[in-house]
Amino acid sequence: MSGPALHLALEIDGDGAHPAAWRRAAHSPDQLLSPRRIARVAAVAENTGFALITLDDGVLPPGASPDPVGRIGAVERAAFVAASTSTLGIAPVVPLTYAEPFHVSSQLASLDHISAGRAGWVVAEEERPEAARAWGRPVVADAEARARESRDGVEVARALWDSWEDDAVIRSVTTSRYLDRERLHYIDFTGETYAVKGPAIVPRPPQGQLVVLGRPDRIPAAQLDVAFVEGRDLTSIATAAAVAGVPRVFAEVEVALDTPEATAAERVADLERHGPWTDRGWLRHIGSAQQLVTLLGELSRHVDGVRLHPLVLDEDLPVLSRLVLPDLSERRLVARPLPGTSLRSTLGLERPANRFAAAAVQEEAR
Question: Which of 104, 125, 163, 170 is a Cys-bridge partner for 146, taking CB atoms 3.0 to 4.6 Å apart?
Fold first, then answer.
């Protein structure tokens, strides 16, 4: 782990972690998908000192539940946020169960260029069989098959990001050369269900490799930069973090905070009238800002970061902004991003060498 300072991430999809969060939102329902709203939330997160925001996603439209949620694609939202922020890391969820890894790698490399090296990628799965029909693909039914698709997809994306060496782009007016073709490479990947030759259609990302985040029980540790670990208590999280085997470990924490208008318990009870707060097996804090600061201080002994999932963004984010992060900063328990740094730099991760360039150096040394 990188040290006592925590890197804080914030999930900003929808109106909050509770399915009925929209009922307590400060905006009208028709504003949920407006660019003004996502820009405002991202600006608050950046100004508050969050290192990273994540954006959940899925291909399926809202279902028949009493609390339907619509969304714009996570990569599209991430690109919009990238243009209006300067220090905030941005990591959209992009499932690989049915998506083409070649196109995913291109989208994410483009996002890293747009954000000047502040992009990440949360790897996830499409678990509902109806998603296959939306993609026009055969159903990937069992968990092991979905994990295989994610594993192969991450391998392909990482290889494609390296298929352009850092100095492959020449842009020489005098010689009329744009590329050094010797520095473009075929990846020649063959998996169980598909093959990809490459090279990519987008130059190597500014970070070399985007920060890849995911669950270590679904993605091999060697393919991850950040592992999201779960547990309903500190002991479970500490145990999961100790065996993750990933450079950085973030705990998943759901939060409902006391506000000037109502206690956290009252707010949860109000939403529970409309439906249950889904139990994902994550640590859940329902209480005051001061108690959350204490909890995060305890977590800092076991993990490198925390991803917060607020009950209702419009109610909990102001409390996080006014009370929680300033207190953490005063105690030097939070790591705030610096201007001009990449997400890798913010998280203390090295920029990886290009695999093809490194292999050429080794060959010459022989």
Answer: 125
